[in-house]
Amino acid sequence: MPKIVISGRGGCGKSTLVTLMAKELKEQGKTVLVIDSDESNLGLAAMIGVKPAEKTLMDYLGGKPAVMDKLMAQIRGEENERAEFFMENSGLSSLSPEFVNWNGSLALMQIGKIEHTLEGCACPMGAIARDFLNHLTVEEDQWVLIDTEAGVEHFGRGIVEGADSVLMVVDPSNDAVLLTEKAAELTEEAGKNFGAVLNKVDEKTRLILEEMLAAKNIMIKGILPYSSTLAQINLQGESLDMPSAIEELDKLITVIT
Ligand SMILES: Nc1ncnc2c1ncn2[C@@H]1O[C@H](COP(=O)(O)OP(=O)(O)OP(=O)(O)O)[C@@H](O)[C@H]1O
Ligand SMILES: [Mg+2]
Which residues are in the CobQ/CobB/MinD/ParA nucleotide binding domain (predicted)? Predict the structure, then answer.
């Protein structure tokens, strides 16, 4: 099954969609790896109800200075054209428990977190995420969902290159529509599949968004309504659940299969 990047503007519901999809896929008997590639995301573990592993991928690879050294060597021409952190392909079941934590058939891993002020940009995180995804093999009943930081920086960092498709979460705002158009162009350039999921909509905003995205030839693959219960569960830091959205989630999962 595909490796899917979940993208969108700040606060549109990326982590919420990743969580709801992951839980529904688990319900369906699938194996799911959630990759947190957002270095400032603190709430995802609580949302999916899986504790982070002891190490981030960055820590597992020796920390940011070690990763930076390798990237700098590549820039100086002492390494291959692309710095490689993984030499062999590996499947989900052979990933080290040092950086992947499983709760039944649902796992969480984090690429890295910003731990200190002035520690530099997040580019090394993009480099290891891309290389990890490029070496990750996924079987028929396995899914990989990649939660990203707000905006389209992950396109620049090459994370999309290591994935198969992009799902763009679109909340009812003009900014979200403009960003979706940009992301669709970048996804096409990367040669990957693209689709939108409307989130936090009511009847009126859904209709307007459908019209706006149709005018831009952007396919809508799923629709999640605004739910005050969901917002409340998130606020209280509890594991997310949205029983009213199960039918929509099942449809979305079928459409992208
Ligand atoms: N369908 C929905 N109904 C009500 N509230 C929602 C819905 N989807 C998301 N939210 C709320 O919107 C807020 C942002 O959601 P979430 O953290 O998933 O967004 P995000 O895109 O991951 O944000 P960030 O850009 O910070 O990573 C949260 O308070 C969440 O509970
Ligand atoms: Mg998030």
Answer: 4-238
Protein residues whose CB sits closer than 6 Å to any atom of ligand 1: 8, 10-16, 38, 41, 150, 199-200, 224, 226-227, 230-231, 234
What is the number of other CB atoms lying within 10 angstroms of the CB of residue 2? 17
Nearest to 89 by CA among 26, 27, 135: 135
- What residues does 193 pair with on adjacent strands? 165
Residues 6+ apart with CB under 8 A from 89: 135, 136, 137
Domain of 120 in residue numbering reads as 3-256
Neighbours of 220 (CB within 10 A): 18
CA 123, chain centre distance (Å): 16
Quick one: tokens of 216? 């831009």
Give me the pLDDT at residue 67, please. 83
Per-residue confidence (pLDDT) for residue 82, from 0 to 100: 61
**CA pair distance 27, 60, nearest whole angstrom:** 30
Structure tokens that stand for 113 in this block: 């977190």
Q: Which of 180, 234, 238, 240 to mutate to test the pocket of ligand 1 (most atoms within 8 A of CB)?
A: 234
Q: Three-class SS of residue 200?
A: strand
- Give the chain's domain count: 1
167-214 pLDDT, tens per residue?
A: 999 999 999 999 999 999 999 999 999 999 999 999 999 999 999 999
CA atoms within 13 Å, Cβ hemisphere of 242? 29
Q: Residue 117 in 3-state DSSP?
A: coil
> Which pLDDT band, with edges at 50, 70 and 90, does 121 fall under?
low
Residue 132 CB-half CA count within 13 A: 28
